[in-house]
Structure formats: structure tokens, C-alpha cells
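At this stage, I put together a protein sequence along with its fold in C-alpha cell form, as given directly below:
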Amino acid sequence: MARLSILVSLVVLGIKYAAWAVSGSGALLSDAIETILNVLASVGTLWAVAFAARPADDNHPYGHGKAEYVWAVIEGVLVVLTALVILSIAGHDALHIQAPEAPLPGALLNASAGVINLIWALILRRMGKKHHSQALSSAGDHVLSDVWASLALLIGVCLIPILHWLWLDPLLSALVALNVLWTGFGMMRHSMTGLLDEAPPPELVHEVGQTITQAGQGALEAHDLRMRRVGALYFVEFHLIVPDEMRITDAHDICDRIENAIRAVLGRSSIHIHVEPEDLAKRHKPGASGVLVM
């Protein structure tokens, strides 16, 4: 998927470069520059997906899944820098306004590249959601933002020869830059939630809590449930209260049953259960939080 993304980006870049070469439009040049970033992003996504797929080792006992979040942040920074470059081009063109040579053929070429990007963005977003891949999801969002920019450019560049508004070309460049800037900040914000181990949605945490309650027959209580997700892997930990007279083997069987039930809900999961005696139960303690009574 990531390798195919590189190929698609190169094809789209070639089409957009041709659109600028035919038209001489600064706005279409800005769009082509933004697509250069798509090529670099595709290469980075290939690295991130491959690195994140590596199994856990002695130096990375929790796996390498956060590589995707790291790359998504780096990609966001590159997007912001690209936006600043495009803004500088828009500023230059605003001070040296000239009419595009052939805006309509250039706009049509750019529109064909936009169609390719739209199809590819939807594929990337679907695959990212399916495989819980932050790198693929970010790449899809990035490409989709390029589609909306191409649509705006198509309309704007076609209006230039009709309305004779020459200032519309640098204005479109500036709008492309602002769209890219907004996308970059959004990518960084979304990726930071994974790097900072933000908790999953409350409804999912509640579902896991209910699963623990249903599968934990024989135990007295579970509390201090904590969850986080790295890529497609969930990390779950909580304390399990068992009767003092319960044998270790029986407590172990309960833990196995709970783990199997959680994995049926979440899929790939690393689960840590801390078994505790009755006197550490929280259900009779006022103000206790995160308590799941069996």
C-alpha cells in the first residue's frame, strides 16, 4: 500500500507539473509544490509502516508501533513548512501580477490529477481505519486536503479569463497555502494524542469494563482500569480482587478467561492483570474511582 502510494504521488506530480508548464499559473505551481510533499510523505509512510510492523525486542519490549505517530508529526511539520513556501510564492506573484498563458488546459490537467487523488485518498483512509494505522490515515487526510485545493483551483483558474481578475491567481495560491497549513496543524494535533497515550473513547473503556465484569465470575472486584492504544495494539491493565482462600491456579484461570474475552472485543491486546487480596477492595471505600464491581 505504501509503495503504491509513492507511485500514485509521482504520477500526480507529473500531471500537476504539466498543468503549471502549460498554463504558467502561479496557483497551479503552488499545487505542484504541495504534491512534491506528497511524494516525500509517501516515502516516509513506507518507512513508518515497515518500522512499526517490527516485533517487540529487548530494546523495545512494547513494540515499534509509535513510529507511525512520530512520522505523522514529522509529516505535519513538513506540511507547515510547505505552506510557508507557497505563501512566499503567492506574495511574490501578488507583487508581480501577470495573466496565465493558458489557464483552461492547465486547469483541466490539474482536475484529472485531483480525481486520481480523490480515489487514492479514500482508499488510504479506509485502509488506515481498517488496520488502525495512523500513518496511512494521516496520508489519506493529507491527500484529501489536496483534492479540495485542486477543486478550488479548477474553479478559480477557469474564472480568470472570464472575469479578467488577474489578482485571483496569487489569491488562489494563498488559499492553497492556508489549506495546507490547516491540514498540517490538524495532523500534528491528531498524532500527538497517540504519542501522549490518550485514553480510548469512554464508550470503549466502558465496554471493556463490562466485559471484565461478565468474564470475571469467581473474582470479587476489578478496579483501576487503564487503557491506551498504539497502532492496532491495545494495552489494558487493571487490578483484580479475589477471595483470600482462592487457589493461585483458580485465579489464573479467571485471568485467562478475562483476557480471552477482552481480546474478543479489542483484537490485538497486551493485557496486564494485577491480582490482589480481599482487603484491597475499593467497593466499600468512599470516593474510590475507576471501580468495577463483579
